[in-house]
């Protein structure tokens, strides 16, 4: 029987994956090793009971009594804390989805790679913060990474068996998020509630706000650079408000292969789950006649400075990805807490990158987790200071 683990099961991507596992037959058809979550203990316990997981893990040690109580009378073991998350990720499973949000996904993701497992990766921060380390670990252990971010799944599918050497350009699309058509001067007054809506995708709050600021796309550009080993000038972003075309791969002979589909994460998750085969998924069929038209536009780096920062990060390499990601997470926390305006998030990230560039060792890509965590902590400190 195939075995699976979901890290971040209680989130938006985790719920979509859970839905697919239940539809695939649930506990009768597959063995669930571990499910992890945060403070949503009731839901985590319910999911673990449904799939008869070996262990359910909350990231928060203070939630352990609540999790134990919620699992009472079941065969599911309860565990809590960061070390328990990593231990759960290290348990052998045929397929492990990382759907944790933020740099917190890095250590558990690395644990999957260290055991040579198959890592279905929604947690793009893993590649942005530690691309070199992550790819080198996978190569050393023979682990496989399957992209779950929709644009990267789309690139992966559009590439097929084509040689990367024949690729002239990869384009990922962006809806433009909540503020695509706002007058620029209004952005400084944007509220958290306004930034937390997305025209096409239902996602967790953090990635939704990152879509409005385009930091999500900045992370995705770096993710594509790291995962596919593409030169920065071969990666482009295109505004596409309908979110039907997810990515385009242009070849040196002028042929362009696009990946289209309804904006539903169950496609990308299910593709990774069934890979290398394909199987039916509960995703709406694409009806282009009903859709009528698709539109595209070039993104403005004035409106979305995050896109410029992504290019600067790829050009400088070293620890820049770690710093951008961590400073962005800090700035996002502060925006959500109401202590920072929407446009100031990019200023804080820029300040952290500038400060880090003057530090010894910045030009070296981190090759171990401790070095990544050092730069991560440094960037959060600098970003917080730049804000106060
Ligand atoms: P979410 O906020 O809905 O869920 C996050 C999950 O991670 C939850 O289970 C939560 O309990 C857990 N978590 C949060 N903080 C944690 C911590 N410190 N330690 C351990 N676990 C923690 O997020 P989401 O929207 O599902 O996104 C998850 C990841 O997938 C992100 O990296 C995001 O960028 C990526 N992604 C999401 C979508 C989407 O449609 N939501 C699409 C593409 C990529
Ligand atoms: Mg995406």
Q: Would you kindly provide a written description of the structure presented here, covering whatever features stand out?
A:
The chain is of the alpha/beta class and 388 residues long. Among the domains are: 3-147, NAD(P)-binding Rossmann-like Domain (Rossmann fold), CATH 3.40.50.720; 317-387, Rna Polymerase Sigma Factor, Chain: A (Orthogonal Bundle), CATH 1.10.1740.10. The chain is 46% helix and 15% strand. The protein is built from 16 helices and eleven strands. It has helices at residues 12-23, 41-51, 64-70, 82-90, 106-114, 125-141, 150-159, 192-195, 205-213, 215-228, 265-274, 288-291, 305-316, 320-336, 344-357, 369-387, and strands at residues 3-7, 31-37, 55-58, 77-80, 95-98, 118-121, 144-147, 167-174, 235-239, 245-251, 256-260. The strands form two sheets. A seven-stranded parallel sheet has the order 4-3-2-1-5-6-7, sandwiched between helices. Helix 3 (64-70) links the parallel strand 3 and strand 4 (77-80). Helix 5 packs parallel to helix 6. The mean pLDDT is 97.
